[in-house]
Every structure is written in structure tokens, then in C-alpha cells.
Amino acid sequence: MRVAITGTTGRVGAALARHLAPRHEVIPLPRAACDFSKPEALEAALDTLDCDVFINPAALTGLEACEDDPRLAMRVNSAAPGKIALWAADRGIRMIHFSTDYVFEGETTVPLGEDMPARPVNAYGRSKLAGEMAVLAHPGNLVLRVSWIFGPEKPSFVDQIFDAALAREPLAAVADKLCLPTCTTDLARWTETLLETGTQGILHACNPGPPVSWHGMAECVVREMTACGWLDLCPEVAALKLDEMPLFRASRPRFTVMDPGRLSAITGGLRPWPEALAEHVRLRCAAS
Ligand SMILES: NC(=O)c1ccc[n+]([C@@H]2O[C@H](COP(=O)([O-])OP(=O)(O)OC[C@H]3O[C@@H](n4cnc5c(N)ncnc54)[C@H](OP(=O)(O)O)[C@@H]3O)[C@@H](O)[C@H]2O)c1
To answer: Cα separation of 12 and 8, whole Å?
Structure first.
């Protein structure tokens, strides 16, 4: 299959390009080839593109950046995906688009199904929800909602904790905000399966397991580092409150635990996040 992939310098795009390359013809579309903030550049790139499926993980992902420039957020996260979806529909090309758990307002305490109402609380979430709607306006397309991405391609929160623990720095993380993380290695495998199944609509694409906070993930990281012999004593991680984070100017939803049951049924089962995170830490230990 000829698979065009945007955002190949990002976590998800890089993981997809690496995973699919041995079995598919991957056409990478980094920002230099396809700038979502400049519609005229988008048209030039699409005019010459020949692919069977268009995968779109590219996005303006910084919450504060979206809050500071909501129009740019709408352009990158909604208008550009909408334009691509229209172009793809005209040519019978399926689109797989990536979205976020931050489309939810986070006020429930039960795992969120795909059909539960989305009510974003910040500019990022609003722009991503608008992007979902623009892509799903065309039958056949698929939206994968992911959350708290980690993987080997690009450092994320868990890698900051790994590095800080190695440097014997004090550790602290928010403990009153819950989610289910997504491992990029697993996400790339699921996406390849979904290329074949032709699934459409929305899927919650996170690893199953107990709902966890950043604090809980940080504790898993240092526990695994200690088990691997990289730390003599397992350090304590201080628990922070979401309301006490001075650098968080955009509102964050507190409970965005998505139910990945539909994806699990399609793919034949998903690896729990503690297993995926422990493997990630072991690989980092081996490479350090
Ligand atoms: N990271 C998470 O924890 C998380 C959580 C929930 C949902 N998601 C969603 O998952 C998807 C992938 O996220 P990620 O973690 O891979 O993001 P990422 O690491 O921040 O990468 C974003 C990618 O988008 C590209 N991009 C940004 N602005 C662009 C523009 N104007 N034109 C073209 N490309 C542009 C970036 O290119 P440059 O390198 O040139 O900037 C980069 O390749 C996104 O849709 C995001 O909303 C992520």
C-alpha cells in the first residue's frame, strides 16, 4: 500500500513511518513538504501526491500554544485536516486521522466510550474536535483518539522522569488527573491492522489497565529503573495538584480515561500500559 504520513518528525508520525516502511511504501510529509498553517503550500503538496491511504498525526499539540493562538490551532488542527479529507474523498482515498482524549471535559468518573459526548475545555481540544468532525464528514475515514503518548521516537513526560531520576534530581508530578496512556510502538501495530480492516468512525486507541496519573506513571518509571539496577534506592515522587501548576495556563480535563474495548475487539487484545511502560524503561536503561 502507498501510505502518505504527515508529522513524521513527531512521536506518532515517526513511529508509524518506521513500523510501516518494511511492508508498505511510506511517503513522508513533514512540515517542510506540507505546512498546515499555509493552505497554499498544502494544495501544492496534495496536487502531486499519489497514495492509497493518508495518515494524519500532524497537529499543533502544545496546549498553551493553542490557547495563545486559537486561530492557528483551528487552521492546523481542523481546517488543514478538513481540506485533506475533502481532497481524499474526491479521489476515493481513505484517511486515518489522530485526535485526543482532550476532546472530553473530564468531569465523569467512568471510562469514556467513543459515543460519549465531547465537550472540550480548552482551545486545543476545541480545534481537535473540529478536526475530527471535518474528517468524519466523509464516509470511510477513521479517527484514532490517543492519550499521553510515550515511545522511543521522541522524549515525553516519562523520559523527563527517567532523566531526572538518573541525575538524582527531586521528582514531582501531578497526581489528581487520570488517564490511560498510549505506547507508540503498540499504536503503530494497531494502525497497521486497521489499514487492513477498513474500520471507520472513532476508536479510542490507548493501552488498557488501571487509570493512572502522571504521578503514578513516574512511580512506575523509577520502580522499573530500580529493578533494572539503575537506581540503588527507589526515590520518592512528590504528589502535585493540577491547580498548583503555575505554567499550565490552559485548562486541563481531570478524568479522560478512555475505554479501548472496541479497538481491543478488532485487534484481538491490547497490551496493558504498565507492561508497555516497563518495556520502554528497560529499553532506555539498555541504551543509556
Ligand atoms: N503527545 C500526546 O501525549 C498526545 C496526546 C493526545 C493526542 N495526541 C495527538 O496525537 C497526534 C500526534 O501527536 P504527537 O505526540 O506525535 O505530536 P508531536 O510529537 O508534537 O508532533 C507533531 C507533529 O506535527 C507536525 N506539525 C506541527 N505543526 C505543523 C504544521 N503547521 N504543518 C505541518 N506539520 C506540523 C510537527 O512537525 P515539526 O516537527 O516540524 O514541528 C510534528 O511532526 C496529534 O494529532 C495529537 O493531537 C498526542
So the answer is: 7
DSSP labels, 27-65: EEE-TTT--TT-HHHHHHHHHT---SEEEE------HHH
Number of domains the chain is built from:
1
According to the model, what pLDDT value does residue 120 have?
97
- Whole-prediction pTM value? 0.97
Please indicate, yes or no, if residue 114 is contained in any of the structural domains: yes
Q: Quote the cell numbers at residue 22.
A: 518494511
Nearest CA, atom 40, ligand 1: 31
> For residues 247 and 257, is the Cβ–Cβ distance under 8 A?
no
Q: How far is the CA of 97 from the centre of ligand 1 (A)?
A: 12
CB distance 106 to ligand 1 below 6 Å:
no
State the residue range of the domain holding 53: 2-212+245-287
Q: Is 173 in the pocket of ligand 1 (CB under 6 A)?
A: no
Task: Choose between 287 and 56: higher pLDDT.
Answer: 56
Residue 100 Cβ contacting ligand 1 at under 6 Å: yes
Per-residue pLDDT tens over the stretch 11-49: 999 999 999 999 999 999 999 889 999 866 788 889 899
- Which of 124, 150, 214, 273 is the catalytic position? 124
Distance from the CA of 286 to the center of ligand 1, in angstroms? 27
Instruction: Verify whether residue 124 is a known catalytic residue.
Output: yes
Q: Is residue 269 part of a domain?
A: yes
CATH number where 283 lies: 3.40.50.720
Q: Is residue 233 part of a domain?
A: no
The verdict on residue 61 lying in a domain is: yes
